[in-house]
Design goal:
Largest sheet: 6 strands, parallel
CATH superfamily: Metal-dependent hydrolases
Number of strands: 8
Structural class: alpha/beta
Radius of gyration: 17 Å
CATH architecture: Alpha-Beta Barrel
Distance between the termini: 22 Å
Number of domains: 1
CATH class: Alpha Beta
Bound molecules: zinc ion
């Protein structure tokens, strides 16, 4: 039997929610065969601690600016990102630009979300890095941008929540679909359909910890330890064995981010 690892492709383990028990959590992840997690970047203010945690626990990471933090001075935010990311030249653990994207649910800064995202798409293209994309209620706008900016390594639409048709449009552009804890909610039938109808090659899995706690969870805080349940649910929807789905998901994430 080949050995299979699990990678949580999206977990904010640098966030203060984990300050009290980060070490114990990483130990519990090892015990659960979770090899690592990818830590996305969210804003200049967060990068120092993010890089510190990523170095301490040897986690791959992305650098980027999340749409919630897009501000009027987005050009200077972008200048900071460029200098920080070029400062990481040769760092093997830097695996992506992101997370970046569009969020109309929190769209009070929409006018700056768009130029900030476009600048990050250009940066990903220039550095030949894949993207970690966040998209809420803005799939048409994001699909239009991604069709226009054809990126060498595409990326992932993380925490995907949309129809099978929308997922297919991203896949056609070379993107993978990031499936998270929403899948565990009984009423997420749209997402269940996406996972059962598309080939396993389309997906990677994630928890988006500490956000996105599944509805049935006992803890208020989400952690990468939930990833096993997400994989089991995906295997069930794909009508394949847990081992097979786990192996495929690992090979998908390793391929996308060159882990
Ligand atoms: Zn995130």
């Amino acid at each position: 039997m080949s050995e299979s690892y699990i990678v949580d492709s999206h977990a904010h383990l640098d966030f203060p929610e984990f300050d009290d028990d980060r070490q114990a959590l990483f130990a519990a992840m090892q015990d659960a065969n979770i090899r690592t997690c990818i830590i996305p970047g969210v804003s200049p203010h967060h990068w120092d601690k993010q890089l510190e945690v990523a170095a301490q626990y040897n986690c791959p990471f992305g650098l980027g600016i999340h749409p919630w933090w897009a501000a009027e001075h987005w050009q200077s935010q972008m200048a900071e990102l460029r200098s920080r990311i070029y400062g990481q030249a040769g760092e093997q653990r830097l695996v992506a630009v992101g997370e970046c994207g569009l969020d109309k649910h929190r769209g009070e800064n929409w006018q700056w979300q768009l130029p900030l995202l476009e600048a990050q798409l250009e940066l990903a293209s220039e550095l030949e890095l894949p993207l970690i994309l966040h998209c809420v209620k803005a799939h048409n706008e994001l699909l239009a941008l991604l069709s226009y900016h054809k990126l060498p390594r595409a990326g992932v639409i993380h925490g995907f929540y949309g129809s099978t048709d929308i997922a297919r449009r991203y896949i056609k552009l070379g993107y993978r679909i990031g499936i998270g804890g929403l899948l565990l909610n009984k009423d997420a039938s749209k997402l269940h359909k996406v996972v059962s109808e598309l080939p396993i090659e389309s997906f990677i899995c994630e928890t988006d910890s500490p956000a996105m706690t599944p509805k049935n969870a006992s803890e208020r805080r989400n952690t990468p330890l939930v990833i096993g349940q997400i994989i089991t649910k995906m295997a069930h929807l794909q009508k394949k064995s847990n081992v097979l789905i786990s192996e495929r998901l690992y090979s998908n994430v390793a391929q996308l981010f060159e882990l």
